[in-house]
TrEMBL record:
It catalyses: 2-C-methyl-D-erythritol 4-phosphate + NADP(+) = 1-deoxy-D-xylulose 5-phosphate + NADPH + H(+). This is 1-deoxy-D-xylulose 5-phosphate reductoisomerase. The gene is dxr. Its EC number is 1.1.1.267. Pfam families: DXP_redisom_C, DXP_reductoisom, DXPR_C. GO terms for molecular function: 1-deoxy-D-xylulose-5-phosphate reductoisomerase activity; isomerase activity; manganese ion binding; NADPH binding. 1-deoxy-D-xylulose 5-phosphate binds at K127, S153, E154, S178, H201, S214, N219, K220, E223. Its cofactor is Mg(2+); Mn(2+). The keyword Iron-sulfur does not apply. Mn(2+) binds at D152, E154, E223. Residues 148-231 form the 1-deoxy-D-xylulose 5-phosphate reductoisomerase C-terminal domain.
């Protein structure tokens, strides 16, 4: 049976997830997908190359000052060009079958919400949408009939192993964490690391910010809150276990004692392809796991003294309300400060805790401007 082509927009096309998404599209059958919008920010040359190669209808940079550069880079084509935050939101609101939401940080929230309001499939890599605005985001998905498919590898794994099972039978979910580059380091040594060392993830090739978040385990902290919203879990149903090989992407415990897991090589093209082709599974030429060569799969409890981010996430899960938005906004500001060399690696968790103390009990933000407001206040407290 010949199927209609699916139209796809990629928000954050020039980033790690965006590039992998276009790579996956390149492996699908000819004519299976058409590209509507590609958005980026600073990397104009790559955005223009991608738009030409994949015959996008529109290319948008979030940086208003780069309009002319992008226009010039796409001269001689019929590809529309636009620039600025609102242009990204407008491009995201064009109706498509699938939107890959892969802008980094809370900057991805407004464009992804715009895509949600069109219905269709939202392939969600941007975990911050759920961390900062879980209830708002899910309400909008329901109101507009959007299908939310998680791309974050752990949540995609859980989504896959929940499929076809009774939710009432779920005891807990177990998020796996690599432990990052400092898994075995002493705390004193962690105090002096640079952004370059922190960005060297042992298993995954990812953007700068999520790589450093993996090193501080703030990535796992965000993922705990992401899981709470996505799978409607109580705080005590969310477990974290360190698994240094990143082969088991996460697990679900059922009430009969069974544990179901999803495994695969650490390659984001697998969850990306799952979301793009759902509910089918298309062939994908990625590495196959060779179980005879896998020496061992290890598991260990996270050390919450060296990685206080995990305890901060537990606190946010328990407090609810605006705590997710505060944790994320404070973390983004602290991370920017660490990358710029203004604060140390261990200072990040201290700054986040201070913001959570100061803004404890703030009401849950249920509109975009309320989320952005609480995010701004958290950043002001951190002021790195
Ligand atoms: N990378 C991975 O393997 C995984 C990523 N994720 C999540 O996916 C999201 C993307 O991650 P990743 O691809 O690593 O990030 P990258 O930093 O590699 O890419 C981010 C993308 O967002 C664009 N961008 C940056 N700032 C803005 C802004 N203010 N407005 C609009 N666009 C902007 C960038 O444009 P430009 O580069 O042109 O400046 C780029 O296209 C994050 O939320 C991350 O947590 C989740 C699981 C795995
Ligand atoms: C690939 C992916 O989903 C990342 O979020 C990954 O999980 C990061 O690894 P950590 O487990 O080290 O945070
Ligand atoms: Mn993840």
């Amino acid at each position: 049976m010949v199927q209609e082509p699916r139209s796809v927009s990629i928000l954050g096309a020039t980033g790690s997830i965006g590039v992998s998404t276009l790579d996956v599209l390149g492996h699908t059958e000819d004519g299976a997908f058409t590209v509507e919008a590609l958005t980026g920010a600073s990397n104009i040359a790559l955005l223009a190359r991608q738009a030409r190669k994949h015959k996008a209808r529109i290319a948008v940079t979030a940086d208003e000052s780069r309009y002319r550069d992008l226009k010039e880079a796409l001269s001689g084509t019929h590809i529309e060009v636009a620039a600025g935050r609102n242009a990204v939101i407008e491009a995201a609101s064009r109706p498509v079958d699938v939107t890959m939401a892969a802008i980094v940080g809370i900057a991805g929230l407004a464009p992804t919400l715009a895509a949600v309001r069109n219905g269709g499939v939202i392939a969600l890599a941007n975990k911050e949408c759920l961390v900062c605005a879980g209830r708002l985001f899910l309400n909008e998905c329901e109101a507009h009939g959007a299908t939310l498919l998680p791309v974050d590898s752990e949540h995609n794994a859980i989504y896959q192993v929940l499929a076809g099972h009774d939710r009432q039978a779920v005891e807990s979910v177990v998020l796996t964490a690599s432990g990052g580059p400092f898994r075995t380091w002493r705390r004193e040594k962690m105090a002096t690391v640079t952004a370059k060392t922190a960005a060297a993830h042992p298993n995954w090739s990812m953007g700068l910010k999520i790589s450093i978040d993996s090193a501080s385990m703030f990535n796992k902290a965000l993922e705990m809150i992401e899981a709470q919203h996505l799978f409607q879990l109580a705080p005590e149903q969310i477990e974290v276990i360190v698994h240094p090989q990143s082969i088991v992407h996460s697990m679900v415990r059922y009430r009969d004692g069974s544990v179901l897991a999803q495994l695969g090589p650490p390659d984001m093209r697998i969850p990306i392809a799952y979301a793009l082709t759902w509910p089918e599974r298309a062939p994908l030429p990625v590495e196959r796991l060779d179980f005879a060569k896998l020496a061992r799969l290890e598991f260990e409890a996270p050390d919450e003294t060296r990685f206080p981010s995990i305890a901060l996430a537990r606190r946010a899960l328990d407090e609810g309300k605006a705590a997710g938005a505060v944790l994320n906004g404070a973390k983004e500001a602290a991370l920017d400060g660490f990358i710029a060399g203004r604060i140390g690696f261990l200072d990040m968790a201290e700054r986040v805790e201070a913001a959570m103390d100061a803004l404890a009990g703030e009401p849950e933000p249920l509109a975009l401007d309320a989320v952005e407001g609480i995010d701004r206040r958290a950043r002001e407290i951190v002021k790195p």
